[in-house]
Design a protein that fits this description.
Largest sheet: 7 strands, mixed
Oligomer: single chain
Mean pLDDT: 84
Shape: elongated
Distance between the termini: 28 Å
Number of helices: 10
Helix content: 40-55%
CATH class of the largest domain: Alpha Beta
Radius of gyration: 29 Å
Low-confidence stretches: 320-331
CATH architecture of the largest domain: Alpha-Beta Complex
CATH topology of the largest domain: Spore Coat Polysaccharide Biosynthesis Protein SpsA, Chain A
Strand content: 5-15%
Structural class: alpha/beta
Number of strands: 7
Strand order of the largest sheet: 3-2-1-4-6-5-7
Number of domains: 2
Length: 331
């Protein structure tokens, strides 16, 4: 089979029939064998019933439409993960169900993967028809930050229209809300030949966007998770151990300085008493100084960070197995 089209759906009933018709027209005209995998991610508007009706009409001679229905809304990442597991095509295409992605782009995306050898080709909505204040500007800031953190040079990391070699989607795990960073996950798995193609973007025809402003907050948090995993996922002690040791040494040095200073002042006071029987030195007690308690807190935090790194290192070492490594060749 040439192409598997994977579509995550959440309350997009009005657009489904038009979407499937558009995909079928393009792929049949290009003589590309295909399947369309539609995942209803806890839809409550009758989307699943619409998928069943479309499948009943088209799956007469051979199965063209495959459906997966979640009991509740798990998120786009879970939907794509299940779709990827089921996909049989040489090239896997992902697209959104809101008709904003153009099916006419699919043959060229397929060609870039098959003929130019890309592992992954990401769409780039160069000209968008979204609200500039709530989507366009935040999207530009988000993509610039994502490029800087992940070192993946894509203009539109979160574009739903993408093409993958089948082996790529079989060897990455999309979880949480990591669908935004699939190119980075692919690169970390060893699939570094990543391309980009400007694609047409259409205005939403039915309903409204299912993603609110909280997606930018969640996206930022996921980005920080990726940064941490990239830098310290296999070596957590390099982060926690370094900072823990540094804070322990700083706190210990401050506490030691306070104690030594107190002893020096006591010695000076005793010397003055021995000379003339009076002294103007009145050293403060170590435990009377707030700085001493701050130093103790820093020492305790340092020890906790070090132990956190030690435990994380043990967990990381014990969880590493053969399946964590992608083998390119073997004989």
């Amino acid at each position: 089979m040439d192409i598997s089209v994977v579509i995550s759906i959440f309350n997009e009933k009005e657009s489904l029939r038009e979407l499937v018709s558009g995909i079928r027209d393009v792929l049949c005209k290009a003589s590309l064998s295909h399947e369309i995998i539609m995942i209803s991610d806890g839809s409550t508007d009758g989307s699943w019933e619409e998928i069943e009706a479309i499948a009943k009409e088209l799956n007469t001679e051979q199965p063209v439409i495959h459906g997966i229905c979640f009991r509740r809304n798990y998120g786009k990442s879970a939907a794509l993960f299940c779709g990827f597991e089921k996909a049989q095509g040489d090239v896997v295409i992902t697209m959104d169900a809101d008709l904003q992605d153009d099916p006419q782009e699919i043959p060229e995306l397929y060609r870039m993967v098959k003929e130019e050898g890309y592992d992954l080709v990401s769409g780039w909505k160069k000209k968008r028809y979204d609200n500039k204040l709530t989507k366009n500007i935040p999207s530009k800031i988000y993509n610039a930050t994502a490029r800087w953190v992940t070192k993946t040079k894509l203009h539109d990391m979160n574009c739903g229209l993408k093409a993958y070699k089948n082996e790529v989607v079989k060897n990455i795990e999309v979880y949480g809300e990591m669908h935004r960073y699939i190119p980075f996950l692919a690169k970390e798995a060893g699939y570094t030949n990543i391309g980009e193609k400007p694609v047409h973007h259409h205005k939403r025809k039915y309903g409204s966007s299912k993603f609110g402003m909280n997606r930018f907050v969640n996206g930022y948090l996921d980005l920080m998770t990726l940064w941490f995993l990239q830098k310290f996922g296999k070596k957590p002690m390099h982060l926690f151990g370094v900072w823990g040791t540094l804070m322990f040494l700083i706190g210990g040095a401050i506490a030691l300085w306070i104690i030594i200073r107190k002893l020096v002042l006591q010695a000076q006071m005793q010397a003055q008493l021995n000379l003339n029987g009076v002294t103007d030195i009145k050293p403060r007690g170590v435990t009377d100084q707030p700085l001493f308690y701050i130093a103790l807190v820093v020492v305790v935090i340092g020890v906790m960070l070090f132990l956190t790194g030690f435990i994380a290192e043990l967990i990381s070492r014990n969880s590493q197995g053969r399946n964590n490594y992608q083998i390119k060749k073997e004989f």
